[in-house]
């Protein structure tokens, strides 16, 4: 009886080890995941831009500056992210930095190019705020899980999570809300309120689903 229990215990331990074994992403999985994540984010930004809404982080700052500059969103997005690459390189490693740089350029280019394939005669601002925020949050979640980000506040939020075990979503929510509120004199109070709602929804997605130790690939 004891021998049988011992055999069952050994099988249970082996099964637990198999379940908890970490399997990293392959190159194909990384490329596919990063592409899908960039597609989601660019479409989310496009929704927000078409409705005249903003968001947080460097994407929000780039959208804000499109109201004050003749430069495109993609150009501003890349330029605004450049100062943060020293932190990514020093704290997050070369692989993370290279993936992040590629994603930033891809999102900027995709967002600028979407006007060639999509055109809205009308888009409800509430729908744009909610759907754009969900696409942004989902896209960022995919990028995070493939060891990449979209630079700027994303890098800082991931660094704080890795260094101090503070959830990236919470850090991102505080910083994003600050950027949106700073846009008070650029857009109407109604659009500002919807932009804040969108920033909160995006970061709720990250807070709920991007937790340390939950995803180990």
TrEMBL record:
Its main location: membrane. InterPro entries: UPF0750_membrane (IPR051461), YitT (IPR003740). The chain crosses the membrane at residues 27-48, 68-89, 101-120, 126-144, 164-184, 190-209. Keywords: Cell membrane, Membrane, Transmembrane, Transmembrane helix. Pfam families: YitT_membrane. The keyword Transferase does not apply. It comes from the Bacteria. The keyword tRNA processing does not apply. It is found in: Cell membrane. It is a multi-pass membrane protein. This is YitT family protein.
């Amino acid at each position: 009886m004891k021998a049988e229990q011992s055999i069952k215990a050994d099988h249970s331990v082996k099964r637990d080890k198999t379940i908890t074994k970490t399997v990293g992403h392959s190159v194909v999985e990384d490329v596919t995941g990063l592409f899908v994540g960039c597609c989601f984010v660019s479409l989310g930004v496009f929704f927000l831009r078409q409705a005249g809404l903003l968001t947080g982080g460097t994407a929000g700052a780039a959208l804000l500056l499109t109201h004050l500059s003749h430069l495109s969103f993609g150009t501003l997005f890349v330029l605004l992210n450049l100062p943060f690459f020293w932190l990514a390189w020093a704290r997050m490693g070369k692989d993370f930095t290279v993936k992040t740089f590629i994603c930033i350029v891809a999102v900027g280019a995709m967002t600028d190019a979407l006007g060639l394939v999509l055109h809205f005669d009308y888009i409800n601002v509430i729908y744009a705020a909610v759907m754009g925020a969900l696409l942004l949050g989902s896209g960022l979640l995919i990028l995070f899980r493939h060891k990449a980000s979209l630079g700027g506040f994303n890098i800082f939020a991931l660094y704080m999570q890795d260094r101090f075990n503070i959830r990236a979503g919470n850090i991102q929510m505080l910083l994003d809300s600050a950027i949106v509120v700073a846009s008070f004199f650029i857009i109407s109070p109604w659009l500002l309120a919807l932009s804040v709602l969108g920033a909160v929804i995006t970061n709720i997605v990250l807070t709920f689903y991007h937790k340390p130790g939950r995803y180990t690939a």
